[in-house]
Amino acid sequence: MAENPSDQVMNWDLTSYFPEFNGPEMVQFKTALRKDIGALLETAGSLAPLEAHNQAEWEAVFIQSEDILTRLSHLSSYTGCLTAADARNEAYLREEGALVRMWAEFSKLGVHHLRALKETPDDLFEAFAGRRAFEGARYFLSRTRREARYTMDVDREALAADLGVDGIHAWGRLYDTLSGKLEFTMEHPDGRRERLPISQCRSLMENPDRCVRRAAFEGGNAAWQTVEDVAAAAINAISGTRLTLYRYRDVPHFLDIALFQAAITQKTLDAMFEAIFSELDLSRRILRLKASTLNADRIAWYDLGAPLSLPDQKPLSWDRSKALVQTAFTRAYPALGAFTQRMYDQNWIDWEPRSGKRPGGFCTGSLLTRESRIFMTYNNTLGDVRTLAHEAGHAFHSHMLRDLRPYAEDYPMTLAESASTFGEMILTEGILGDPDVSDAQKALTLDMEVGHGAIFLMDIPVRYEFEKALYDERASGELSVSRLKELMVETQRRIFGDVLQEGAEDPYFWASKLHFYITGVTFYNFPYTFGFLLSRGLFAMFQKEGPDFLPRYEAFLRLTGSDTAENVARRSIGRDLEAPDFWVEAIRSLEAPLKQLEAILPEVLPSAKWSSG
Fold first, then answer.
1. Concatenated DSSP letters for 506-517?
2. Which residue, 195, 179, 10, is CA-closest to 85?
3. Which residues, 6 or more positions from 573, have their beta carbon under 8 angstroms from its beta carbon?
């Protein structure tokens, strides 16, 4: 009989994964998957590294690994959906723990892939990668060979995979469980008090009422303070484990892994941040304008996501949110609109606020069914509408890759975030171009666009600079709670400058930000800014060329798992990402919406004191 102990009602339909949780189909699926992983591990372990005479055997290993990856992604996506939607369900959490062990076993196959290619001469590799079975997988094989340079011997890598289950990944799971169960006391301005899941803190910090935002911020941080020692232990364990493994794998610098995962060069990353720091005045102008809307001289950390406080604002229903996204997408990009309607019709989105839901939002999918699912917590704000458009962009990206082999679908975050942000920009353009939308709504939309720009250009760099400093200091020992708080505040002050009110920083941002605790990817921050700016460049081309640009955009999406970010941009849109000029142009594209906002604000907020200079 199926184990289904939850009475939690979810919005999305997950039956295309399995008819029921731990029903006979799912149990059979898991049993076959474990068996196949074990058998293939035995086969791969018996082979010598790639040689001319054993190419067929290694071909079979790689192809069967791809099949296992497809099925494992299916099971992983399903389990991730369940645990995110109901983080208190012990059966789901046990399944998540078991899945980590299965991934650890699968990662041992990856170790054999690395062993096979590590010492392969160029001519032999070319012959192997050119085999017919690997059509469309050449880039994957090249990346595997490159990664092999930084590996330990097979036994040590296998040990690292096993220890990771109850080590680094266990710390990540602990944080997920902690954040899923954590609640905070919300003291509303009217004196009402209520206990809320921490996942609702972010949406409340996007409330138009500054008193509500401050109360949510203070209540949320009071909750994080109660678990600060656990969060500090987790972030120290995750970063410390990585640094230890890097040392044994002869990785020259901790950023080398982040660059490899992002599929970019150091030159590209440096060019982007050179542009960001040279253009900080524009970002600070945006925040000074935001402060003016609050009748304040400076902003507090809890003001970063604040919408304009306009008297005629009304909560946006879920149906209204879907309609806003659908209309904007359909008008600008019919194929995207049709795909989004399919998501609505087939119930691919879990959106309702519920106790036990994990914070944040994401898009996940199965390589087996070629379907996506979107997870978010909708709290009737324009920011939540933007989240829907963002995650729909991710889902459409996967849809564009649906006829490619799994090895050609593994795209980096740097390119993944460009599709999602492109979706946001279409939404913004649609709202601004709609004659039925009021000036107030357009002002809100413009404020959100430039406000998000400031976040991508200041908040995300804070996360990046903090994490760099964390790893530098962690190499000499663990960081205390007080040092983590101090380091976060120091970084926020350095990036934001005098536009951030003294004493209004967020010392617990290192604890409340899920991204620092993701164990599968390191430096889960700068790719967001990369994707944001890259998408602004893409969207500028779309505005200039119109529908004729869309085939190039779709070519861009389809290439994302088949080349480096630099080559994808060069091949599809003809731009050089290693040149600061590209990034400067993208940043300065925020000037136009900022000027539009400056022009419209005195009409919708005549009582504010205006200053953006």
1. -TTHHHH-GGGG
2. 10
3. 537, 538, 541, 552, 556
CA 110 – CA 141 distance, rounded (Å): 11
What digits encode the pLDDT tens for the residues 144-182? 999 998 889 888 988 998 899 899 999 999 999 999 899
Residue closest to 173 by CA, chosen among 470, 478, 517, 509: 517
Across the strands, what pairs with 197? 183
- Cα–Cα distance measured from residue 54 to residue 355, given in angstroms and rounded to the nearest whole number: 55
Averaging pLDDT over each range in 249-263, 305-319, 346-360, which range is the top one?
249-263
Q: How far is CA 127 from CA 120, 147, 561, 574, in A?
A: 11, 19, 22, 30
**Cα–chain-centroid distance for residue 126?**
34
Q: How confident is the model over 182-193, as a mean pLDDT?
A: 95
Quick count: other Cβ atoms within 10 Å of Cβ 32? Answer: 11
Spatial CA neighbour of 514 closest among 178, 267, 256, 289: 178
Backbone phi, psi, residue 398, to 5°: -60, -40
Q: Check residue 2 and give its pLDDT.
A: 47
Model pLDDT, residue 610: 56
Side chain identity, residue 241: T
Q: What whole-number distance in Å separates Cα of residue 416 and Cα of residue 593?
A: 24
d(CA 202, CA 182): 13
The interaxial angle of helices 318-332 and 382-400, nearest 10 deg, is: 50
Instruction: Tell me the per-residue pLDDT of 88-131, one tens digit each, with 9 for 90 and over.
Output: 899 999 999 899 899 989 998 999 999 999 999 999 999 999 99
* Burial profile 472-503: b = 16 or more Cβ within 10 angstroms, e = fewer: eebeeeebebeebbebbbebbeebbeebbbee
Helix-, strand-, coil-residue percentages of the chain, each rounded to 5: 70, 5, 30
* Residue listed under structure tokens 């902003």: 299
Q: How far apart are CA 386 and CA 567, in angstroms?
A: 29
Structure tokens at 162: 């096993």
Check the CA dihedral 309-311-312-316 and report its sign. positive
Map residue 589 onto helix, strand or coil: coil
Radius of gyration of the chain (CA): 24
Under a CB-based contact definition with an 8 Å cutoff, are residues 213 and 290 in contact?
no
| Residues 360 and 512: beta-carbon distance below 8 Å | no
What number of residues does the chain have?
613
Using alpha carbons, list the distances in angstroms from residue 421 to 394, 424, 564, 595.
9, 5, 19, 21
What is the H or E stretch that residue 350 is in? strand 349-350
User: Token pair for residue 164?
Assistant: 């990771």
